[in-house]
Amino acid sequence: MTAVPRAPTTVLVLDDHDRLRRNLRALLEDEGFLVAEAGSGEEALSIVRATEIDVAIVDLRLPDMSGNEFIAVAHIVRPTLQFVIHTGTPNYSIPVELRRFGLSEESVFIKPISDANALFARLRLLGGK
User: Fold this and answer.
1) pLDDT at residue 99 in the model
2) Measured at the alpha carbon of residue 112, what is the angle toward residues 13 and 22, in degrees to the nearest 5?
3) Where along the chain do its domains lie?
4) Average predicted confidence (pLDDT) for the chain
5) Kind of pairing, strands 10-14 and 82-87?
6) DSSP β-ladder status, 108-110 and 10-14
7) Architecture of 10-127 per CATH?
8) In sequence order, which residues have a C-beta less than 8 Å from that of residue 116 and are 6 or more positions away?
9) pTM of the full predicted structure?
10) What pLDDT is stored for residue 48 in this prediction?
11) Which residues, at least 6 apart from 76, have a Cβ–Cβ distance to it below 8 Å?
12) Which residues, in sequence order, are bridge partners of residue 56?
């Protein structure tokens, strides 16, 4: 009996810094992830509404809404969506309301990411693939 291949984990990269977002997308695609990207919270919400995304990598400081606000709204739009925080704030603490969505310290990655393999593993775990 042959195993049925699993579909790749789909990831949304939400970051307003174009170069960082594109570099992260390329890195993830090289690892076999299917990747969409957005430079604003509103753009990301449009993608979440229209596309099956497993995990969103979310920057906290965005031009139109905070990453925390995006997560709260995106969770309502797509309750199965999982999240990873990607922030330059080393002392970031996950708000209580976001912990209810399953966010934990294991899902917080500080920029620049020092261990890409840890990020890949977290994305695969959260994506269930």
Assistant:
1) 92
2) 35
3) 10-127
4) 93
5) unpaired
6) unpaired
7) 3-Layer(aba) Sandwich (3.40)
8) 27
9) 0.93
10) 98
11) none
12) 12, 83
Cβ burial of 34 (10 Å; 0-12, 13-18, 19+) is middle
CA dist 33 and 16 (Å) reads 20
Q: What are the residues facing 10 on neighbouring strands?
A: 34
Query: How many angstroms separate the CA atoms of 35 and 57, rounded?
Result: 10
82-97 burial code (b ≥16 CB/10 A, e <16) = bbbbbbeeeeeebeee
- CB atoms < 10 A from the CB of 55, how many? 24
Closest to 44 measured CA to CA, from 18, 67, 17: 67
Under the banding of pLDDT at 50, 70 and 90, the label for residue 14 is very high
Residues 51-79 have a mean pLDDT of 96
